[in-house]
Write a structure and sequence with these properties.
The complex is a heterodimer of chains A (186) and B (295). Chain A has helices at 8-31, 49-55, 64-70, 72-79, 88-92, 96-107, 135-142, 157-164; strands at residues 36-41, 44-47. With 186 residues, chain A is mainly α. Chain A has a two-stranded antiparallel ribbon. In chain A, β1 (36-41) and β2 (44-47) form a beta hairpin. In chain A, α3 (64-70) crosses α4 (72-79). Chain B has 295 residues and is α+β, with helices and mostly antiparallel strands. Chain B has a 4-stranded mixed beta sheet, covered by helices on one side. In chain B, strands 3-2-4 form a 3-stranded antiparallel beta sheet, with no helix packed on it. In chain B, α1 packs antiparallel against α2 (33-62). Chain B is globular, with a radius of gyration of 24 Å. The two termini of chain B are 26 Å apart. Classes of the chains: A mainly alpha (186), B alpha+beta (295). The interface between A and B is large, with 45 and 64 residues.
Chain lengths: 186, 295
C-alpha cells in the first residue's frame, strides 16, 4: 500500500497526458483542412472541395467546333476530305490568343486580330496562331515508319516526290505544289 | 465490395412499385368500400416504401462512390436513374488498329496539363515483333518518329508491329487509392481517380501500388501526379485533350451510363480487353484489337 501514498507523480503524468492530448488536437485541427471529410468515399473521408479545385483549371486545347464557328468555309472544305479528323490545331498551333482576340473583335470594332506567325517547331506547343507550309508538319503524321497500320496512307518522302515528279523536291514547301492545306487530295 | 450497390439499386425497383401505388390514389374514388380500404393500405405502404427506399438510396449515393453504381452502368439507366440526379460514369476506349504513332496526344497532354519534361501522363508504346522471335518495345517520341533520329529497322526482319497508347485505367478497384495514407487519392463521383493537392504529402506509396505505372511524383509540386482523363475538361463537357488531338479517332471517350454513346455501342458489339485483368482492378479503359502480348 505504500506506493499509493506517492500519488503526486501520477497527477503530473495525468496532467502531461491531458496537455499532450490538447496539443495534439490543436495541431491536428491546424493541419487538416476544414473541408476534410465532406465526402465519404469507399475507403474513408475525403475532401470534396478538391474536386472543384481540380475541375476549376482552365482548358488549353481548343476543339475544332470552336474554330468552325467563325471559319465555316474551312469546315465545308474539310468535312468530306480524309482530313476531316485532322484537327486545326495540328497545323495552326493552339491558337488560344487568336480565339480570344477574334472573340473580342466580334464585339468591338477596335480590337485587332494579330496575323498568323511564322512556324518554328511543333504547332501543338505554341499558344499562338501559325500558318506554315513546311513539309515537317505533314511528315510528322505521314512519313512511313515501322508500326504504322496497313490502312494508313503513309509515304516515303523521297520515293513519293520522285514518283510524282516534284519540281523542287528539296524545298520545304514542296508538298504544296500538288496538295492543299485543307483540301489535301492531289 | 461493389456488388453491394447493384443490390441497393434494385431496391429502387421498390421505388418504382411505389410509383404504381401513386396511380391507385388517382381516380379510384368511385370504387367500392373495400377497395377504398385497400387504397388506404396501398397509400401507407407506398409512403413507407418510399421512405425506406430513400433511406437506403441516400447513403448509397452519398457514401459509396457512384462509380460503383455505374459499374452496373446499364442498370443505372433504369429505375435508379430516374430517382437520383444521375452523375455521369465515364469510360475510355483505345482502338489500337487506328493508332498511327504521330504522338499528337502526347504533346497535347503536356500542353494541357503542364506535365514537366521527362514525365508523362500518357504515352504510346511501339511493339516490334522480329522474325527471330524477339520483341522490341519503345515509346513514341513526342514529335513523332519523323525526325527522332532513331535507327530505321530493316522491314524484312519484322514480322509485325503496332502501337499501344497507354493512360490511366481509372480502375473501379484502384490499388493506388487504397494505399494512400492521407486520403489524398479521391474517387470522384464520375469514377475518376484524382489527387487532392492539399492532402498529398508525396510519399509515393501510390506510385508503387499502381500496376500500370501511371503515377509519378511531379517535381514541380512534389505531389503525386497522374492522368485524370482531363477532369477539368470532362466536367465542362469537353473531350480530354488527347482525344481532342487524336487525328485518327484511336481514342474514344464517353459515358458508359448512356446506352447511345459511341463507347457504349462499341462495348456492346465488339470484343474488348483490359490490361492485367487477372489483378482484378476492373479498369474502365478498354482496348479494341489488343494483341495478347501487350502487358
Amino acid at each position: 500500500m505504500k506506493f499509493l501514498l506517492d500519488t503526486k507523480h501520477l497527477w503530473i503524468l495525468l496532467a502531461l497526458l491531458v496537455l499532450g492530448g490538447v496539443a495534439a488536437w490543436e495541431a491536428r485541427s491546424w493541419m487538416v483542412p476544414d473541408t476534410y471529410g465532406d465526402l465519404m468515399g469507399r475507403y474513408g473521408p475525403y475532401r470534396a472541395a478538391a474536386l472543384e479545385q481540380i475541375a476549376a483549371r482552365p482548358s488549353v486545347i481548343i476543339a475544332d467546333s470552336v474554330c468552325h464557328e467563325c471559319h465555316q468555309d474551312v469546315e465545308e472544305e474539310r468535312t468530306d476530305s480524309k482530313h476531316a479528323t485532322v484537327r486545326c490545331i495540328h497545323c495552326h498551333g493552339l491558337a488560344r490568343k487568336h480565339v480570344a482576340q477574334a472573340q473580342a473583335a466580334a464585339k468591338s470594332p477596335d480590337a485587332t486580330i494579330a496575323p498568323a506567325q511564322e512556324w518554328d517547331g511543333d504547332p501543338l506547343t505554341k499558344i499562338d496562331l501559325y500558318i506554315t507550309q513546311d513539309r515537317a508538319t505533314c511528315l510528322v503524321c505521314h512519313e512511313e515508319n515501322v508500326g504504322m497500320p496497313e490502312w494508313f496512307q503513309k509515304i516515303n518522302v523521297e520515293e513519293h516526290l520522285d514518283d510524282q515528279g516534284a519540281e523542287e523536291p528539296d524545298s520545304k514547301e514542296t508538298c504544296f505544289e500538288c496538295h492543299g492545306g485543307h483540301d489535301t487530295a492531289p | 465490395m461493389f456488388n453491394i450497390l447493384p443490390q441497393k439499386d434494385s431496391n429502387t425497383g421498390c421505388n418504382c412499385d411505389g410509383g404504381c401505388g401513386s396511380e391507385t390514389s388517382a381516380d379510384e374514388l368511385t370504387e367500392a368500400e373495400f377497395l377504398k380500404s385497400r387504397r388506404g393500405f396501398l397509400e401507407k405502404a407506398t409512403t413507407f416504401m418510399l421512405g425506406t427506399a430513400s433511406l437506403t438510396l441516400l447513403p448509397a449515393s452519398l457514401v459509396l462512390s457512384k462509380e460503383a453504381a455505374g459499374t452496373a452502368g446499364k442498370a443505372a439507366t433504369g429505375a435508379g436513374a430516374a430517382a437520383i440526379e444521375q452523375t455521369p460514369l465515364y469510360g475510355f476506349m483505345v482502338d489500337t488498329e487506328r493508332c498511327i504513332g504521330a504522338g499528337k496526344c502526347l504533346t497535347a497532354c503536356r500542353a494541357e496539363n503542364d506535365v514537366p519534361e521527362g514525365f508523362a501522363r500518357t504515352w504510346v508504346e511501339r511493339y516490334i515483333h522480329l522474325k527471330d522471335g524477339t520483341v522490341q518495345v519503345d515509346t513514341v517520341p513526342e514529335t513523332g518518329y519523323a525526325d527522332a533520329g532513331l535507327p530505321i529497322l530493316d522491314p524484312d526482319t519484322i514480322e509485325r508491329s503496332y502501337f499501344v497508347p497507354k493512360l490511366c485505367n481509372q480502375c473501379v478497384d484502384a490499388p493506388c487509392n487504397q494505399v494512400c495514407p492521407t486520403h489524398a487519392s479521391i474517387t470522384s463521383p464520375e469514377g475518376i481517380e484524382l489527387i487532392d493537392p492539399e492532402l498529398c504529402i508525396g510519399c509515393s506509396y501510390c506510385v508503387q501500388a499502381c500496376p500500370y505505372g501511371i503515377r509519378f511524383i511531379n517535381p514541380k509540386t512534389n505531389n503525386a501526379d497522374k492522368c485524370d482523363w482531363c477532369y477539368h475538361r470532362i466536367t465542362k463537357d469537353e473531350q480530354p485533350a488527347c482525344v481532342e488531338a487524336c487525328p485518327t479517332g484511336a481514342r474514344i471517350f464517353g459515358r458508359l451510363d448512356d446506352p447511345n454513346s459511341e463507347i457504349s455501342k462499341r462495348l456492346r458489339k465488339l470484343p474488348t480487353s483490359v490490361l492485367k485483368e487477372h489483378l482484378g482492378t476492373h479498369p474502365k479503359l478498354y482496348y479494341l484489337d489488343l494483341p495478347q502480348e501487350v502487358i
